[in-house]
Specification:
The structure holds 2 protein chains of 2 kinds.
Chain A lengths: L1 H32 L3 H14 L4 H13 L3 H14 L4 H14 L9 H5 L8 H18 L7 H26 L2 E5 L3 E4 L8 E5 L4 E8 L2 E6 L4 E5 L3 E3 L1
Antiparallel strand pairs in A: 1-4, 1-7, 2-3, 4-5, 5-6
Helix pairs in contact in A: 1-2, 2-3, 3-4, 4-5, 7-8
Chain B lengths: L1 H19 L3 E6 L3 E3 L4 E8 L3 E4 L6 E15 L2 E14 L3 E5 L3 E4 L2 E4 L3 E6 L11 E7 L10 E9 L3 E6 L7 E5 L3 E7 L2 E14 L4 E4 L3 E9 L21 E9 L3 E4 L11 E15 L3 E3 L4 E11 L15 E5 L3 E7 L2 E14 L3 E5 L2 E7 L4 E7 L2 E6 L5 H19 L27 H22 L10 H13 L5 H19 L3 H7 L3 H16 L7 H14 L1
Parallel strand pairs in B: 2-10, 21-28, 22-30
Antiparallel strand pairs in B: 1-3, 3-6, 4-8, 5-6, 7-10, 8-9, 11-12, 12-16, 13-18, 14-16, 15-16, 17-20, 18-19, 21-23, 23-26, 24-26, 25-26, 27-30, 28-29
Helix pairs in contact in B: 4-5, 4-8, 5-8, 7-8
The chains are: A alpha+beta, B alpha+beta.
Chain lengths: 238, 562
């Protein structure tokens, strides 16, 4: 009898856990509709922490921050969503609105690697990974045939090489070459202390590369190649 | 006696052998007479030993870089190994510099090199009025503040004997450099007319540090008329025509002087206003095209910033929309020209102000600061608040926005200014939590999949004994090429073996049969005859009793035919 209850308990746990998560998502939608954006953000973020971050969740969090008039943070989450979603007109529109609010020209907000590995603008990162694996397998399969399919071999070889390079770049962006968005108008210092001299200021919504973080400050490089240290609280990681 | 003699010979040979492999170290410089700011190499070579070089303190020399190379020579079975350490050094003072012995610690003990003497003379940047070619470098301010624009100028003087001038683009460490338009003019110095070329850079320091702007290397090709031969024949006036003159060219290298700099940090900003990023001198004013508008109209609000400094870095504080009106900023318009103190001119920031209701409203005052390097103080700028009156009824929000957008666009099109796009709201949430491929990829899983695929592929190749190929050459082309190379050789039996091997290889690759099996199936007598000729040449005939060229030619035809 006890064993039956135990199995039932385990089974209900399995069934109910996604249901609970789904309920949280639904609640967050409700809060958003009732203009309780802060609560909605909390629930969406809890959802991303407990379940997993998806493009849709990032998009919704971005929307909440937009409504809270925190445009820098909104842009940060839209940029995250861009990585995980296929080309999405809604996202494009919202990003444009956000850029207009921040007086940011999105075309100038790209590093060289973003331009080189541009596929993420159109496809989700997950899909690019799958695509690269498929092309890699296809290339290995084709090179088994001697004297045949030479053009296909070359095309698949080049494509799989480019896709693998793209995936390596995306992977490194999570670990070494991190990127971020300035979420509040910030002063850039010459060292990791607010007592050090101010080099220049960065406007909310500016796109930066992040090298390292020390003592509450992060070393950054701006799009136009200027280095400096920024207070970590003014920076949102993508 | 014999035994003693034999032992002594053995000992002598061992000694000789060890002498041959003696380890040692030597030092030399590629030049011993150098000029300040002209780099040269100190070369330390270590023979038959491996180790490390301890660099001594050398007064008056700065080590810029070092490199190591090694070489191994085997002569008559004797192995000689040589490791060369090259130090690229820069003399920083004039006079005789003594390079102390370098200590080299090796696996065979430590060695010391001999002393090296270097004579350093003053950098030759040329003497005005005397030399045909000289140069100088100038910096407008050797101790600028970070981000303050300074002018760096290289002035090259050359007379008519200089044919061509080239210079190494200086590397401005710690500065962002922008090259300006070059200037060329003439100047008379000490009865000599020089062509003066000015190469100007605007420098913007971005790191607080001090150092030197390295000397710029300038190279010139000079030419002069060659002395005429002492042959009286050439003394004829006919040969004085310029068409007959011969020119002797030579190359001359000079360096400009090194320019020290000290980039200062900005003093503590006691003002609490927004820092506009400007190090220079600016003034600002604001205006609006009308002060009274109807509810369906909008106002063009303009902020003009005039001044000098790093103007293209300017950032203004945000003007936020309120419930009463919305602010739509346009891209700023830069009307700047470069000068020795940075950029000079005007920047116009345009905003479209769209009212949301009727009444009297004000655009708030703006306050920001800049740093004036001449006065060495922070200065606040305040743009006064502007008031405007909105009259009439407001249409419904949606319709109004649409109308306004149209109006703004029409008006901007007239003025040929970029259109501000009025978008006020965003697209609603995504109601699905996840779609296909929209989650964060698990890179460790993908890495495992790649490794597994590669591993399976290698296993498959091993078991099936297949070699993968990306670019396969046509076997016919390969064999014909091989036959072509045999054709050039002498008529020897080994070459006939090679010819046969190529033919067999071709037929095996293409038809899976040897040339004999393949030909035995055909009825062509001529081919069969060729095969017997080949066999005769290979086994029965004398070493040179056949015509190799003819046989190769027939072989080629055979390959072309099948």
């Amino acid at each position: 009898m006890f064993r039956k209850f135990f199995y039932l308990f385990i089974l209900s746990g399995f069934i109910l856990s996604p249901v609970c998560a789904f309920a949280d998502f639904e609640k967050a939608l409700k809060f958003y509709n009732d203009n309780h954006y802060e609560k909605a953000v909390e629930l969406f973020q809890a959802e991303a922490d407990n379940f997993k971050l998806t493009g849709e969740l990032a998009f919704n969090i971005g929307n909440c921050f937009f409504k809270l008039e925190k445009y820098g943070q909104a842009l940060q989450w839209y940029k995250k969503a861009e990585k995980y979603l296929f080309y999405d007109p809604d996202l494009k529109f919202n990003m444009d609105v956000c850029n207009t609010k921040l007086s940011v020209n999105d075309k100038n907000q790209k590093f060289f690697t973003d331009k080189l590995f541009f596929l993420r603008t159109y496809f989700s990162e997950f899909f690019i990974n799958i695509l690269s694996l498929v092309f890699f397998c296809l290339f290995l399969f084709l090179i088994l045939f001697k004297k045949k399919f030479i053009i296909f071999k070359i095309i698949t070889g080049i494509l799989s090489f480019y896709l693998i390079l793209s995936c390596i770049n995306y992977f490194l962006e999570y670990n070494i070459f991190k990127k971020g968005v300035v979420i509040t108008d910030s002063r850039i210092y010459s060292a990791y202390s607010s007592k050090s001299s101010i080099l220049f200021s960065l406007k909310e919504g500016s796109f930066v590369k992040i090298y390292k973080c020390e003592k509450g400050f992060c070393k950054i490089l701006t799009i136009d190649g200027k280095p400096g240290w920024i207070d970590k609280s003014g920076l949102g990681f993508i | 006696m014999k035994r003693v003699l034999f032992s002594s010979i053995i000992i002598f040979l061992i000694f000789l052998n060890s002498f041959c492999f003696a380890s040692g170290a030597a030092i030399r410089a590629d030049r011993t007479d150098v000029k300040t700011n002209e780099t040269f190499n100190i070369i330390v070579s270590v023979e038959n030993a491996k180790g490390s070089v301890n660099l001594p303190q050398i007064e008056g020399l700065k080590v810029l870089s070092s490199s190591t190379s090694s070489s191994i020579r085997i002569i008559n079975g004797k192995r000689e190994e040589k490791i060369i350490y090259t130090f690229n050094v820069l003399p920083v003072k004039e006079g005789k510099i003594i390079v102390p012995p370098f200590e080299i610690e090796t696996n065979k003990g430590s060695f010391k090199t001999n002393i090296l003497e270097i004579n350093v003379s003053k950098t030759d940047a040329g003497i005005p009025g005397k030399d045909n070619f000289f140069a100088r470098a100038f910096i407008s301010d050797s101790s600028p503040y970070v981000s303050e624009a300074v002018e760096f100028k290289i002035v090259i003087y050359s007379d008519e004997s200089v044919l061509k001038i080239g210079f190494e683009e200086p590397g401005f460490k710690n500065f962002k450099a922008e090259r300006q338009d070059d200037r060329t003019y003439s100047k008379i110095i000490g009865n000599k007319t020089y062509t003066v070329s000015e190469i100007v850079y605007s420098l913007y320091p971005y790191i607080i540090t001090n150092g030197d702007i390295a000397p710029v290397r300038i190279e010139a090709q000079t030419g002069r008329k060659a002395a005429r031969q002492n042959n009286p024949f050439f003394n004829d006036p006919f040969f004085s025509d310029p068409g007959f003159s011969t020119f002797q060219t030579s190359k001359k290298i000079i360096f400009t002087q090194a320019l020290p700099y000290n980039i200062k940090e900005l003093p503590k900003n006691s003002l609490n206003s927004f820092f506009s990023n400007i190090i220079g001198r600016i003034s600002a004013s604001a205006d609006m095209d009308k002060k009274t508008i109807s509810a369906d109209d909008f106002i063009n609000y303009r902020i003009r910033v005039k001044g000098i400094g790093n103007l293209s870095d300017i950032k203004l504080p945000e003007i936020y929309s309120t419930d009463d009106f919305k602010i739509y900023p346009d891209n700023p318009k830069f009307e700047l020209k470069k000068s020795s103190k940075g950029e000079e001119g005007e920047i116009i920031f345009n905003y479209a102000v769209v009212p949301s209701k009727s009444g009297t409203f004000e655009i708030p005052a703006l306050k920001f600061c800049f740093f004036d390097p001449e006065k060495e103080k922070w200065i606040d700028i305040e743009i006064e608040k502007k008031t405007f009156l909105v009259t009439g009824e407001i249409e419904k929000n949606h319709e109004k926005n649409e109308n306004m957008e149209k109006k703004v666009i029409e008006k901007k099109e007239d003025k040929k200014i970029k259109k501000p796009i009025i978008r006020d709201d965003i697209i609603y949430l995504k109601e699905q939590k996840e779609t296909m491929f929209s989650s964060v990829p698990d890179y460790s899983l993908f890495l495992k999949l790649y490794i597994a695929t590669g591993f399976c592929f290698c296993l498959f190749l091993m078991f099936r004994k297949i070699s993968p190929s990306v670019f396969s050459k046509n076997i016919r082309t390969v064999c014909l090429k091989k036959l072509g190379s045999i054709e050039k050789k002498n008529s020897e039996k080994k070459n006939i073996h090679e010819l046969r091997f190529v033919l067999n290889n071709y037929f095996l690759e293409k038809y899976g049969e040897t040339v004999e099996t393949f030909i035995s199936k055909t009825d062509d007598d001529e081919i069969k005859k060729y095969l017997s000729e080949l066999e005769f040449a290979e086994f029965s005939g004398k070493n040179t009793d056949f015509d190799l060229k003819n046989l190769v030619l027939k072989g080629k035809n055979l390959i072309k035919r099948f």
